[in-house]
Protein backbone atom coordinates (compact mmCIF):
# COMPACT_ATOMS: atom_id res chain seq x y z
CA UNK A 1 0.00 0.00 0.00
CA UNK A 2 1.31 3.44 -0.94
CA UNK A 3 2.09 5.90 1.82
CA UNK A 4 -0.58 8.59 2.24
CA UNK A 5 0.24 11.93 0.67
CA UNK A 6 0.50 15.09 2.68
CA UNK A 7 -2.86 16.74 2.18
CA UNK A 8 -2.96 19.87 4.27
CA UNK A 9 -1.38 23.27 4.03
CA UNK A 10 -0.21 24.02 7.55
CA UNK A 11 3.22 25.25 6.46
CA UNK A 12 1.70 27.61 3.90
CA UNK A 13 -0.81 28.94 6.44
CA UNK A 14 1.94 29.55 8.98
CA UNK A 15 3.93 31.47 6.38
CA UNK A 16 0.84 33.45 5.28
CA UNK A 17 -0.07 34.35 8.86
CA UNK A 18 3.47 35.11 9.99
CA UNK A 19 3.60 32.23 12.47
CA UNK A 20 6.27 29.62 13.07
CA UNK A 21 6.19 26.03 14.20
CA UNK A 22 7.81 27.25 17.42
CA UNK A 23 4.74 29.45 18.03
CA UNK A 24 2.47 26.41 17.87
CA UNK A 25 4.77 24.46 20.19
CA UNK A 26 4.79 27.29 22.72
CA UNK A 27 1.19 28.49 22.50
CA UNK A 28 -0.51 25.10 22.19
CA UNK A 29 2.01 23.35 24.45
CA UNK A 30 2.87 20.78 21.81
CA UNK A 31 6.37 19.35 21.83
CA UNK A 32 8.63 20.38 18.96
CA UNK A 33 8.78 16.90 17.48
CA UNK A 34 4.98 16.65 17.30
CA UNK A 35 4.71 20.00 15.54
CA UNK A 36 7.47 19.19 13.08
CA UNK A 37 6.25 15.69 12.26
CA UNK A 38 2.63 16.78 11.94
CA UNK A 39 3.43 19.83 9.81
CA UNK A 40 5.63 17.79 7.47
CA UNK A 41 3.06 15.03 7.09
CA UNK A 42 5.32 12.41 8.64
CA UNK A 43 2.85 11.95 11.48
CA UNK A 44 -0.86 11.74 10.68
CA UNK A 45 -2.99 14.52 12.08
CA UNK A 46 -6.19 13.90 13.97
CA UNK A 47 -9.49 15.75 13.93
CA UNK A 48 -8.52 17.23 17.29
CA UNK A 49 -5.23 18.47 15.80
CA UNK A 50 -7.06 20.16 12.92
CA UNK A 51 -9.59 21.78 15.25
CA UNK A 52 -6.97 22.97 17.73
CA UNK A 53 -4.69 24.45 15.08
CA UNK A 54 -7.59 26.01 13.14
CA UNK A 55 -8.86 27.66 16.31
CA UNK A 56 -5.36 28.90 17.13
CA UNK A 57 -4.89 30.36 13.63
CA UNK A 58 -8.45 31.75 13.55
CA UNK A 59 -9.38 29.57 10.57
CA UNK A 60 -12.21 27.21 9.80
CA UNK A 61 -10.93 23.64 10.08
CA UNK A 62 -11.53 22.87 6.39
CA UNK A 63 -9.38 25.85 5.40
CA UNK A 64 -6.27 24.00 6.60
CA UNK A 65 -6.97 21.51 3.82
CA UNK A 66 -6.86 24.31 1.23
CA UNK A 67 -4.05 26.49 0.00
CA UNK A 68 -4.37 29.90 1.72
CA UNK A 69 -4.94 31.71 -1.61
CA UNK A 70 -7.87 29.40 -2.44
CA UNK A 71 -9.37 29.77 1.03
CA UNK A 72 -9.09 33.55 0.88
CA UNK A 73 -10.79 33.59 -2.53
CA UNK A 74 -13.65 31.55 -1.07
CA UNK A 75 -13.90 33.94 1.88
CA UNK A 76 -14.12 36.93 -0.46
CA UNK A 77 -16.76 35.17 -2.55
CA UNK A 78 -18.79 34.28 0.55
CA UNK A 79 -18.50 37.85 1.87
CA UNK A 80 -19.67 39.25 -1.48
CA UNK A 81 -22.62 36.86 -1.59
CA UNK A 82 -23.60 37.86 1.95
CA UNK A 83 -23.30 41.54 1.05
CA UNK A 84 -25.53 41.07 -1.98
CA UNK A 85 -28.07 39.08 0.03
CA UNK A 86 -28.23 41.81 2.70
CA UNK A 87 -28.44 44.50 0.05
CA UNK A 88 -31.44 42.73 -1.48
CA UNK A 89 -33.04 42.31 1.96
CA UNK A 90 -32.61 46.00 2.75
CA UNK A 91 -34.14 47.23 -0.50
CA UNK A 92 -36.99 44.76 -0.32
CA UNK A 93 -36.54 44.06 -4.00
CA UNK A 94 -36.64 40.64 -5.51
CA UNK A 95 -33.82 40.17 -7.97
CA UNK A 96 -35.82 37.61 -10.01
CA UNK A 97 -37.43 38.64 -13.25
CA UNK A 98 -41.10 39.30 -12.48
CA UNK A 99 -42.10 37.14 -15.45
CA UNK A 100 -40.57 34.19 -13.62
CA UNK A 101 -42.57 34.79 -10.46
CA UNK A 102 -45.09 32.08 -9.58
CA UNK A 103 -48.59 32.82 -10.85
CA UNK A 104 -51.62 32.63 -8.60
CA UNK A 105 -53.96 29.83 -9.43
CA UNK A 106 -57.59 30.87 -9.40
CA UNK A 107 -59.97 28.56 -7.67
CA UNK A 108 -62.89 27.28 -9.75
Automatic annotation (TrEMBL):
One of its GO terms (molecular function) is DNA binding. CDD domains: HTH_XRE. Residues 83-101 have a biased composition (Basic and acidic residues). Signal peptide: none annotated. Gene3D superfamilies: lambda repressor-like DNA-binding domains. Residues 83-108 are annotated as: Disordered. This is Helix-turn-helix transcriptional regulator. It comes from Qipengyuania atrilutea.
Amino acid sequence: MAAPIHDWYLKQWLRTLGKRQADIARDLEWNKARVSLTASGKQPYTRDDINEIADYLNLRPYELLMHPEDAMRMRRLRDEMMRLAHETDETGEDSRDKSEAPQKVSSA
